[in-house]
Amino acid sequence: MLQRRKPSESEFVAQARDAQLSERCIHLSAALRERHPTDASAVEQPRSDLLQVYTQARGLAGSFAERLAAARWPAGAVAQVRPSGVKRLDRMVEKYLYSKRALVVPLDMLGAKVVVDSVWDMYDVASQVQSVFPVVGYRDRVVRPQSSGYRDLQFVVNAGTEAQPHYAELKVMHRLIDELDGYEHKLYEIRRELQAKETERQTEQQATSEELFGRALLSPIEQLVLDTLETASADLFDRAWQMILEAEHG
């Protein structure tokens, strides 16, 4: 398993300060990154067979939910697993069928989130995750948000055993980001549909040996919608985060 290069604590502190965190959040953010040096993006499932991992996830779904519910999270924190228990197999296949990347067994077949009302509470909850599940990977997406502007604290945890590990995703989220995510997901579905069309048409052209260059894969309107939705998502998450910071700093 690859580990990211470990900067000095001062770099972690500087990055947290650039994210406009409060002083106490800055130092807890840095401490968590020191404690969990393996980046979540560098982690892969121990098994590479999709169906085997899916079957394993179904068998662990109950105990995963029970451990999450039994944890003593801070007051006001709301913890919940994926409503369906396990990520739908057809959605996983669909996602990777139209992906331009090689098939990777996902880390979020089992998924959960803990939702809180402040940035400090996010880091407070994050500091307790290792007492509930063994932490395999961690990424501070408050300090280093996704390209869409989405922010959370992302953990990869072992929901199985040491002998039979199964990795799951646990996200610590601010309530406003969680609420917005429900709406933004609808935009994501449209983007994914258009991206799937683009990939499918490219595959068809390659199969028929048609010239790829100079021929648009999406119609002008489809491309307009795709570009606009990508910009809209980033704007929504950025504005929501500014609302959070304004509330934090009063």
In short:
It is built from seven helices and five strands, in the order H-H-H-E-H-E-H-E-E-E-H-H.
Structural summary, described in words:
- The protein has two domains: 39-175, Beta Polymerase, domain 2 (2-Layer Sandwich), CATH 3.30.460.10; 179-249, no CATH class.
- α1 packs across α2 (23-35), α2 (23-35) packs parallel to α5 (119-126) and α6 (175-207) runs antiparallel to α7.
- The mean pLDDT is 89.
- 29% of the residues are buried.
- It is 50% helix and 12% strand.
- Strands 1-2-5-4-3 form a five-stranded mixed β-sheet.
- With 250 residues, it is of the alpha+beta class.
What's the number of extended β-strand segments? 5
Beta fraction:
5-15%
Our count of helices gives: 7
So, CATH architecture of the largest domain? 2-Layer Sandwich
Order of helices and strands: HHHEHEHEEEHH
Share in helix: 40-55%
Termini gap? 42 Å
Give a short account of the largest sheet. 5 strands, mixed
Give the overall form. Answer: globular
Derived structural class? alpha+beta
Tally of separate domains: 2
Mean pLDDT reading: 89
Kindly report the name of the CATH homologous superfamily of the largest domain: Beta Polymerase, domain 2
